[in-house]
Write a structure and sequence with these properties.
This protein has 301 residues and is α+β, with helices and mostly antiparallel strands. 59% of the residues lie in helices and 12% in strands. The protein contains ten helices and nine strands. It has a five-stranded mixed beta sheet with strand order 3-5-6-4-9, sandwiched between helices. A two-stranded antiparallel ribbon has the order 1-2. Strands 7-8 form a two-stranded antiparallel ribbon. A hairpin with a 4-residue loop joins strand 5 (218-221) and strand 6 (226-232). The two termini are 39 Å apart.
Length: 301
Amino acid sequence: MFSTILLHKRKVVLLSVILLSCVLVTAWVGDAKYWHEIDWVDVIGEGGSACAMAIWIVFILGSRPKGRVTDLLTLGLGAMMVAFWQDALDEFIRIPAEQWWEQWFESVAMPVGISILTYGLYHWYQEQLVVNDILKKREQFFREHLWLDNITHVNRVDSLNQQLQRIGHEHGESELSLIMMDVDKFSMFNRIHGKQEGDRFLFQLAEFLQLNMRDNDLLIRYAADRFIIILPHTDYMSALSMAYEIQDAIAHFYYRLKKTGHSYVPSVSLGIATRKGDEVSNLVESANQELSLAKQKRKVA
């Protein structure tokens, strides 16, 4: 987050200078109010609104790269924050009536900020349509960031039951299959090359798997080096055919080690299960048993 904010340090400096200038100019032209004159309800409302918008700006700058949408959202919220900030200062400092600029400043900054923010949100909406299209295969029209795995950026095992129930409900009585995949001898790979290289390998493997899946299939990281692919509208023979295709594709996946640049070609073991009737809870257990049998036959760890 902080590394991303550093990309926008000019915006942060500019907003800080404007806020500080408001304090200095207001204190210079006005007089401090007595304690009993301060309306604390307005202080909490206006000051709290300014603080909330400052937090929103931090979230935006801490999560977005440079670009037009980021500039518009920051500029719009910044103008609104300055208007609330000046309103809050008025509760502590009395501004003489001849200082017409102060009322004008408050009245103009707010509608201008709202207009810019609205325009920025429109472009953010257009941006989200593009992002949704990119993430469609990963999310399957259901977004929950708490379910995403930090290493592979696909769904974590926490979401497995919910996703199975959701997909099973959406697709009714149609056949539903599941492929469980385990990377052979991954623990040895980790010992030789280190956990960081292992995490990098898993990320690239997940990306590769996404390319070899259908649009309505869903990939989930089940354990360290074990993945599950949920296949809606797929009978056992079709799932078996897809499993062989994925296994063959991975046999041609050349992972480049970061330190040496040498290639590493993994192999995987697969287990397949297909839903019978409405039940989906035993799919994972069935696939896990099939995977164990496959690994025993191949005698891999």
